[in-house]
């Protein structure tokens, strides 16, 4: 629903915010929109057309500047909760706090990431199954091989992978020989290659989300314990 007295648009988008500070001023700047109720996750429901095209996106970014915000995908009004859910999920993976470095992120630009992390239990199962050949390696070696394998699975040849990773092409070939020994015939099966790429990208997304959560925790002020009042002696 939008403000009373106005007809519902054909499509709406959720806009989920990290903080509810001045949320009503944001709503006023955007025009027709519905503001979340007190106690709910801070957010807005806007006509989808407000985020259409470069001009729409630029206007939203201007209104929401210095805020960590996610604009959901366009849905019919009766499916608004789906846009809220997707935007809220992406907000967990995007900017961790408001401020000059915060920005507006659009669900439309991150559909594959959201699909990969839609069910974290299945995602962890996929990672464990398809990346098991890397399980016994040191973290440093595992990271190097994963980066090389992901670039190769993206369709790059040795020169392109070398340029993307800033390493020598011969290093790429050496790593690929190691990967072929570890994965064997699995790298020659199209379906398995696809699932390995999904697992690699999922692991990257999960690691990034963990780093952002850790950054938030470091920024939070530590609670200072109150001095205890001594009990009166009997």
Automatic annotation (TrEMBL):
Gene3D superfamilies: PucR C-terminal helix-turn-helix domain. InterPro entries: CdaR-like_regulators, PucR_C-HTH_dom, PucR_C-HTH_sf. It comes from Streptomyces sioyaensis. Residues 147-201 form the PucR C-terminal helix-turn-helix domain. The lineage of its organism: Bacteria, Bacillati, Actinomycetota, Actinomycetes, Kitasatosporales. This is PucR family transcriptional regulator.
């Amino acid at each position: 629903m939008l403000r009373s007295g106005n007809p519902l648009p054909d499509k709406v988008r959720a806009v989920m915010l990290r903080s509810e500070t001045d949320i009503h001023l944001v709503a006023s700047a955007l025009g027709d929109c519905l503001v979340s109720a007190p106690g709910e996750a801070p957010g807005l429901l806007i006509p989808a057309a407000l985020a259409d095209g470069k001009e729409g996106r630029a206007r939203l970014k201007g209104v929401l500047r210095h805020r960590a915000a996610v604009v959901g995908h366009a849905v019919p009004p009766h499916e608004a909760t789906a846009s809220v859910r997707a935007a809220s999920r992406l907000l967990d993976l995007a900017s961790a706090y408001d401020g000059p470095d915060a920005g507006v992120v659009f669900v439309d630009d991150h559909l594959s990431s959201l699909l990969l992390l839609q069910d974290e239990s299945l995602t962890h199962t996929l990672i464990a199954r398809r990346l098991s050949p890397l399980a016994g390696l040191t973290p440093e070696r595992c990271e190097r091989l994963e980066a090389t394998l992901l670039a190769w699975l993206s369709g790059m040849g040795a020169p392109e992978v070398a340029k993307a990773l800033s390493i020598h092409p011969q290093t790429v070939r050496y790593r690929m020989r190691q990967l072929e020994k570890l994965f064997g015939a699995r790298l020659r099966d199209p379906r398995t290659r696809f699932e390995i790429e999904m697992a690699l990208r999922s692991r990257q997304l999960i690691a990034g989300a963990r780093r952002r959560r850790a950054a938030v925790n470091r920024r939070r002020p530590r609670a200072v314990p109150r001095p205890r009042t001594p009990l009166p002696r009997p």
